[in-house]
Design goal:
The complex is a heterodimer of chains A (174) and B (661). Chain A has a single domain (32-173), classed as 3-Layer(aba) Sandwich (Glutaredoxin). Chain A is built from 5 helices and 7 strands. Chain A has helices at 7-24, 76-90, 104-114, 128-132, 162-172, and strands spanning 44-45, 55-56, 66-71, 95-100, 118-124, 140-144, 150-155. Chain A has a 5-stranded mixed β-sheet. Chain A has a two-stranded antiparallel sheet with strand order 1-2. The radius of gyration of chain A is 21 Å and the shape is elongated. The N and C termini of chain A lie far apart (71 Å). In chain B, α7 (121-145) packs across α8 and α10 runs antiparallel to α11. In chain B, strands 2, 3, 4, 5, 6 and 7 form a 6-stranded antiparallel β-sheet that branches. Helix content of chain B is 63%, strand content 11%. Chain B is an alpha+beta fold. Among the domains of chain B are: 1-165, Four Helix Bundle (Hemerythrin (Met), subunit A) (Up-down Bundle); 419-503 and 608-637, no CATH class; 505-606, no CATH class. In chain B, a hairpin with a 2-residue loop joins β2 (516-519) and β3. Chain B is globular and about 95 Å long. Classes of the chains: A alpha/beta (174), B alpha+beta (661). At the A-B interface, α1 of A face α11, α12 and α13 of B. Chain B: Residues 317-627 form the Cytochrome c-type biogenesis protein CcmF C-terminal domain. Chain B: It comes from Erythrobacter insulae. Chain B: Residues 91-297 form the Cytochrome c assembly protein domain.
Chain lengths: 174, 661
């Protein structure tokens, strides 16, 4: 047995230990929006589906904090998110949707299948608002306070464990 | 049904891999009881190969018909995609590419079991057991954490599409090619472990291993070459190598395999470098697996990380610990008991090969360190990004002596040689080096590395043909032609790299239709910018009328594309290829005043980078052909000798001892 033959093993064990440690560490994969704590930009989007009004900045003024949900009918995580939005709506939260690059028929289909938690859905056909508020994908959810300021951003689908946290934030910004 | 059938095939293959391990281990016992079970190892490997490939074909089918009840298809495909991209989408995602990986792994294990008859049965049993063990781990990974055949409870209405960057014909070829290379090295790994376990590290073993290494290495070379060209024209950044972790992940096994290729040749020809060859055999496949881990786990941030998932990362890390850690542990305890190979002097062919092996390993260490360094510093909460300013000079420190020895090494004799014997060649190469450096220095003020690169490229190109000097060309073995070709390819690629980095000219301008720009003797006129639409994208397309000197203008059309499924913007470069370089044009955004950003490069001899890669692969192919032909000839001669002996016995003559092979 020669010690020199143990060097590769020692080096590898060091790497494996380091990689194992790094895997357990939380990693910031998300890029938060630069718009947090800034006012919502001025916008006015047409309705995305028959039967629900479109969305504009004015809809967020009025004293009560609301959720702005960026989603699309072609987005699979949005399906997973639907029950959670429903739960939030049942808690009395008003959710305004922004449908990204969508078609009215598809939106209607989606709402029929997975439920409709929205009071309004604006059609953002060219991702204009999405980019302006710093959302990198779908779904993303923003907490907007009563004065129209962006106060919090949730990236990705809302899981069941996120619901209480979002409710608390909504309460805090009131 | 398709998905269920594929899943069943995978589970069956998994069961067969367990049988393969058990039979292999029983074969190691060497007694009669063991032999009863040992006979199942080969068939288990062969049937497994059929099942795994079958499973992959079924997934291809599910993508071809866009079966949206399969989750993987729904999340990665789209019914409106062109058929070719539906198919290539099969491996444009984590699960599908892991299935491809497993299929290739099983296929190479099956081929090994089917074709290889030269090794001692015990070594073969150990090898097949190791191959089965590796396969089992990846089957478990696939089935337990990344099942490609998972169904959706409710079929999706429409798929989410494939990352537009991946919707390119280059992607149809690039990953499968690389995977054949990566996974082909698993055979070298298993053979090395088999030989180590049975202590049969012999020239015969090296002759068995060599074609496998060559085969994997040819595919790795092709894969890296294709990947580099793809990044060059598809990303639209004008560069051909970015030292991105994923690129490094493919380069590291290549470096290890290149070293292994040369060391296995020494072992085959001279019975030297026994432990070193085993070490490299383990290292090469370890680098393949490490690459997979780095790309898939998300511990490193990369532009390529399309399947980041820490849970999968833990699984791959456990596999790494098991295989690499296990192999290195066996190596540590066992390598000392492998008898030392034949001795040789420093100035000999072996000496040169050892030197370059060490240099290749050093470059590998540099790349490995640079790739893992961010991981190390992030453990202390410091974020760094390691790029060309580190890799280029640090790699060059070892690459330059390597090129020197590479030019001279093939001229030396085995075992022992005097440098004075090749005085003429040495003087020739030295004068070429000096004159090229002097010439470029007169031409202009260029950075040191590109100038050295040009000089070495010219010297190496000449040196690669010097081994043919004074030989009867008709009688040069095919394998030697392979070496000449591969070394010449290195020179060609090096020339392209150095020339691109020294002589590239760039023009960045904001233009309006009708205006004209010039770069490096080319005039580029913007004729107009129009919207165009493809099957799943829309784009603005610039019409550029391009002419070099007084020649007839050519129209080229770079695009800025917007894909809508999923939404993403990409840049399609437009290229004009001439024998002495490429014109590379990219259209950017429109500014508020209505002008378009236009970026144009003239890249002299940039294509030589990829021609070089192709020549290197061709060298590998020639080498395989040469080795296999020699081997077949020898087999035929042995068979004839045996027949003649049997005939003599039949007519009652005294049997002569069989001639040594």
């Amino acid at each position: 047995m020669r010690p020199v033959f143990f060097i590769p093993l020692a080096l590898f064990l060091f790497f494996a230990g380091l990689a194992g440690y790094m895997l357990t560490q939380d990693k910031d994969q998300m890029v938060p929006s630069g718009m947090i704590d800034k006012p919502l930009p001025e916008f006015s989007l047409p309705p995305a589906v028959d039967g629900l009004p479109g969305a504009a900045r004015a809809n967020f003024l009025g004293g009560k904090p609301k959720l702005l949900n960026v989603w699309a009918s072609w987005c699979l995580p949005c399906i997973a998110e639907a029950p959670q939005l429903e739960a939030l709506k049942d808690q009395g939260v008003e959710i305004i949707g922004i449908a990204i690059r969508d078609k009215p028929a598809d939106v209607a289909n989606f709402l029929n299948r997975y439920g409709n938690p929205y009071t309004r859905i604006g059609a953002d056909d060219i991702s204009q608002l999405q980019i302006e508020i710093g959302a990198a994908g779908v779904p993303e959810t923003f907490v907007i306070d009563g004065e129209g300021n962006i106060r919090y951003q949730h990236i990705g689908d809302i899981r069941a464990e996120d619901v209480p946290e979002l409710l608390k934030i909504l309460q805090d910004v009131e | 049904m398709i998905a269920e059938l594929g899943l069943a095939a995978l589970w069956l293959a998994t069961a067969l891999s367990v049988l393969q391990i058990m039979s292999g281990v029983m074969g190691l016992r060497g007694d009669e009881k063991g032999a009863v079970l040992a006979m199942y190892a080969r068939p288990a490997a062969v049937v497994q190969a059929f099942l795994a490939v079958f499973a992959f074909l079924l997934l291809l089918w599910a993508f071809a018909i866009t079966d949206l009840s399969v989750k993987l298809v729904a999340t990665n495909s789209h019914s409106m995609k062109p058929l070719i991209y539906k198919l290539t989408g099969t491996w444009g995602n984590h699960e599908g590419s892991m299935l491809l990986w497993v299929a290739v792994l099983a296929l190479s294990g099956g081929l090994l079991a089917w074709m290889e008859r030269r090794l001692p049965e015990k070594t073969m049993s150990a090898t097949l057991a190791v191959q089965g063990f590796v396969a089992l781990g990846f089957y478990a990974f696939l089935l337990l954490s990344s099942n490609p055949f998972e169904r959706l409870p409710v079929p999706a209405m429409e798929g989410t599409g494939l990352n537009p960057l991946l919707q390119d014909i280059g992607l149809a070829v690039h990953p499968p090619t690389l995977y054949v290379g990566y996974v082909g090295l698993s055979v070298a790994f298993s053979l090395a472990m088999g030989a180590l376990i049975t202590k049969q590290v012999t020239p015969d073993f090296a002759k068995v291993m060599r074609p496998w290494v060559l085969f994997a290495w040819v595919f790795l070379t092709l894969g890296i070459t294709a990947g580099s060209y793809w990044a060059y024209y598809e990303l639209g950044w004008g560069g051909w190598w970015f030292w991105d972790p994923v690129e490094n992940a493919s380069l590291m096994p290549w470096l290890a395999a290149t070293a292994l290729l040369h060391s296995v040749s020494v072992l085959a020809a001279r019975d030297a470098l026994r432990t070193w060859t085993i070490m490299l055999g383990v290292l090469a496949f370890s680098m393949s697996m490490l690459g997979t881990f780095l790309v898939r786990s998300g511990v490193l941030t990369s532009v390529h990380a399309f399947a980041v998932d820490p849970e999968r990362g833990s699984f791959i890390l456990a596999l790494l610990a098991l295989y690499i850690g296990g192999a290195l542990a066996i190596f540590a305890f066992r390598a000392g008991s492998i008898a030392e190979g034949k001795r040789f002097s420093v100035s000999s062919r072996e000496g040169a090969l050892v030197f370059n092996n060490v240099m290749l390993s050093a470059i590998l260490a540099i790349v490995l360190l640079g790739t893992l360094y961010p991981l190390l510093t992030e453990a202390f909460d410091v974020r760094v990004s390691v790029g060309p300013p580190y890799f280029n000079p640090a790699g060059a420190i070892f690459a330059i002596p390597m090129f020197l020895v590479m030019a001279v090494g093939p001229l030396l004799r085995w075992k022992q040689d005097k440098p004075a014997r090749i005085q003429f060649e040495l003087m020739l190469l030295a004068s070429v080096l000096i004159s090229v450096v002097a010439l470029v220095a007169i031409l202009g003020d260029y950075a040191i590395l590109p100038v050295l690169g040009l000089a070495f490229a010219v010297a190496l190109a000449i040196a690669s043909f010097l081994p043919l000097r004074g030989r009867n060309i008709a009688r040069v073995p095919t394998a030697t032609w392979g070496m000449v070709m591969a070394h010449f390819g290195v020179a060609v690629a090096l020339f392209g790299m150095a020339s691109e980095s020294a002589f590239t000219q760039e023009r960045l301008a904001a233009v309006t239709p009708g205006s004209t720009e010039t770069v490096a003797g080319w005039t580029i006129a913007l004729e107009g910018v129009d919207p165009v639409a493809g099957p799943n994208w829309t784009a603005v397309e610039a019409r550029l009328s391009v002419a070099r000197g007084d020649e007839e203008p050519t129209i080229i059309t770079p695009q800025a594309r917007n894909f809508w499924a999923p939404a993403q913007a990409t840049s399609e470069s437009a290229l004009i290829t001439r024998w002495d370089g490429q014109l590379y044009a990219v259209i950017g955004d429109q500014s508020d005043d209505g002008r378009w950003q236009l970026r144009v490069w003239w890249k002299p001899f940039v294509t030589f980078i990829w021609y070089g890669g192709l020549l290197i692969s061709l060298g590998g192919v020639l080498s395989i052909i040469g080795r296999v032909r020699v081997d077949l000839k020898r087999r035929r001669a042995t068979r004839k000798a045996r027949e003649r002996r049997d005939d003599k016995i039949a007519i009652g003559e005294q049997a002569q001892p069989e001639p040594a092979e």
